[in-house]
Amino acid sequence: MKNGLESTFIEFRQVYPFVYTQRDEGWFQYERHYHKWDISLYILEGSLIFHFENGTKRRLKLGDRYDIPSWFFHTVDVWNDGCSYIVGQEFEDDEEYE
């Protein structure tokens, strides 16, 4: 996993100026929001469930990458075991809540 993690960091840094790891505790919820710029996530541990405006869901788990387009409204639930992931984004403070 270490080589995969390192290569993911390198890949993200080639595209995004801000790359960092994030850890969310279980059962945490991100309210409805969007990002002004494209961002990418890579799941290191646990899982996230994305809820989209059209009623569909997408669960991300270990090893999944998800590219979130700009101005795409969504909410996120952190699964019960929490989640750690790599984030790549254009700007440091990118989330906008309504």
Write up this protein.
This protein is mostly beta strands. 14% of the residues lie in helices and 56% in strands. It is built from 1 helix and 7 strands, in the order αβββββββ. Strands 1, 2, 3, 4, 5, 6 and 7 form a 7-stranded antiparallel beta sheet that branches. The radius of gyration is 13 Å and the shape is globular. The mean pLDDT is 90.
How would you summarize the topology of this molecule?
Layout: H1 2-15, E1 18-24, E2 29-35, E3 39-52, E4 57-60, E5 65-68, E6 74-89, E7 95-97
Question: How many β-strand stretches?
Answer: 7
**Poorly predicted sequence stretches spanning 5 or more consecutive residues:** none
- Alpha-beta classification: mainly beta
Strand content: over 45%
| Anisotropy-based shape | globular
- Largest sheet descriptor: 7 strands, antiparallel
Radius of gyration, Cα only, in angstroms?
Answer: 13 Å
Mean pLDDT: 90
Order of helices and strands: HEEEEEEE
User: N-to-C terminal Cα separation, in Å?
Assistant: 37 Å
The residue fraction in helices comes out at 10-25%
Number of helices: 1
In short:
The protein is mainly beta. The protein has one helix and seven strands; from the N terminus they run αβββββββ.
Question: What descriptors fit this protein?
Answer:
single chain; 98 residues; mainly beta; 7-stranded antiparallel beta sheet; 7 strands
